[in-house]
Amino acid sequence: MMNFKKNKPDVSDSNNKKPNKSMPFKFNLNWIYLLIIAMLFGIYLTNNQAVVNTKEINWTEFQELTKENSFSKITVYNKKSTVTALLKPEFVSTHFKEDAEDSKKVKQKAGPSEYTLTTRAPSSDRFSDFYDRMCAEYQVDAQVTFDEGSDPLFDILISFGPYLLLIGIWIFILRRMSGGGKGGGGMFSVGRSQAKIYDKTSQERKVTFNDVAGLTEAKQEVEEVVDFLKNPSRYTDLGGKIPKGALLVGPPGTGKTLLARAVAGEADVPFFSLSGSDFVEMFVGVGASRVRDLFRQAKEKSPCIIFIDEIDAVGRARGRNASMGGNDERENTLNQLLTEMDGFGSNSGVIILAATNRADILDKALLRAGRFDRQISVDLPELNDRKDIYLVHLRNIKIDDSVDTEFLARQTPGFSGADIANVCNEAALIAARSNKEFVQKDDFMNAVDRIVGGLEKKSKITTSEERRTIAFHEAGHATLSWVLEHANPLVKVTIVPRGKALGAAWYLPEERQITTYEQLQDEMCATMGGRAAEEIFLKKISTGAMNDLEKVTKQAYAMVVYFGMSELLPNVNYYDTTGQDWGYSKPYSDETASLIDKEVKRIINEQFERAKQLLTEHAVDHQKLSAVLLEKEVIYADDLELIFGKRKWLSRSQEILEQQELNKPAEAIDPIKNNTKKDTDRVDF
What we know:
This protein is of the alpha/beta class. The chain is built from 26 helices and 17 strands. Helix 1 runs antiparallel to helix 7 and helix 20 runs antiparallel to helix 22.
């Protein structure tokens, strides 16, 4: 292709003359469209087989020529009262002298010529009367036709419309294929990075560490990253190197993405956000191309942060389950990611943050030093962290003096930050449905029950015998949880159907880091209390204990296989924390499997017999509790205290809280005072 160049005027001064730089001629695709339109217009003009010569005359001249029978065809257009008449050949020379001389040449070039005269009639009716009179008096034989007339613009649209439509469709397809000039996901831009960029021009509100409650240790880890982005010379001058990448690992909803955005907000640097699945595409080589484009953009905007959410979508260990099908495209994307992370300079100002809840399946090369140097654990919030999270989410909620954040934090063990946000929102919705002006404590408790157990189904029909069975079953759980030392203390028991359960009991699990053999035994015994109560007091068992049996069986199996708490198989563990070594095969023999089954049955049977023994000892109190439950349908820990007396043992969390209350100065009282996990250890019937 030839390059056309044009000179620019010399604007340099005489002392510093520089040669004129010529600008290369840039080709524009729109010129092709204009050329095509011009060609179509020319074809339209030259496509007529006849050359029409037209001359306009007045109405008087037209009448005289009509009397002479000069016309072979007359067309009357009603809308504009215009008359067009085709001259007979013998009269052409009179009105078109020059054209008549050249008619021979015209015929050779463009076919036969037509000579017409046009005039404006007073009206279509007047012309009709005039022509009838001419036919009667002068024997006029011209052929007359009446037409409504046509719009020139409409004629142009009819002529060029199909061509313009095809051209428009063609332009649309080409722009879509090229991404529409916006860097979008067109066919020609499919290899571009799909990351969303948050910088100083973004309209979204910046997230800071003040918006991230809890996660104290995790925030301390990432504060160093923020400090490096703000003051890189403090580290580089001493020869230090900031970690290239940090991997946030934790359960869903714990705030990994929020923490990464807070890092970018605190550092006030561009933030590239995307998920691991954004690299995946149906076309070969697209994932690797997007990785290259992402790091190219990041280097241009450094210092900056790249955040890859759910990195396990692209960072899964290579070669895993190769027989299950090819994953070459995903592995190529991972290889490119590894190359880019190891390729850019250590002090380039580009830091990678990634989040996953499945760190065990990530490729080992991705976790080595020099790529993701640090793994930051983002765990479920503890008691004090949950209280701080409640304070954050209660900022925009109107609450009254009955709401106590410490109480809410105790009632929601195992809840993540997302779960707590859901509790606060659900409580506000419940209060709004009741037309309340403020969200109260009862609304929060109903919200917790709604999230943990589902909606109440008071319309579900149960017979009196079924209600009695459910009451004895749930009273069995409540009784054993009250008398056993290590059992989780009771919060609430109900026989109102909720969700899929006909009855449920909520407990407050201890937040402990390790669990002893005795604690596991007491928990299993309390879980078996429902089935044991049915067998002792009703002399029959029901299907309502299915959830209890499932939980106990899994717990007993874990004691034998994972924790080594077995008399026949002591100190043996068959659990692979990496998930890579054993695959689909069992790590033990068939004989060992038989021993495991025997031990599981023995542990369960022992706790079942123990549960029956304890219920027999407290049969009178159990009967009273069942009667109260049948009457009220919902009972709380206070009701058990009236029947059984004060519980002898306090849970560890209750002891800590009571100690904190004793040591807390008066001025440190929570200003919102009077302001569960889905494991609020619920036992379904």
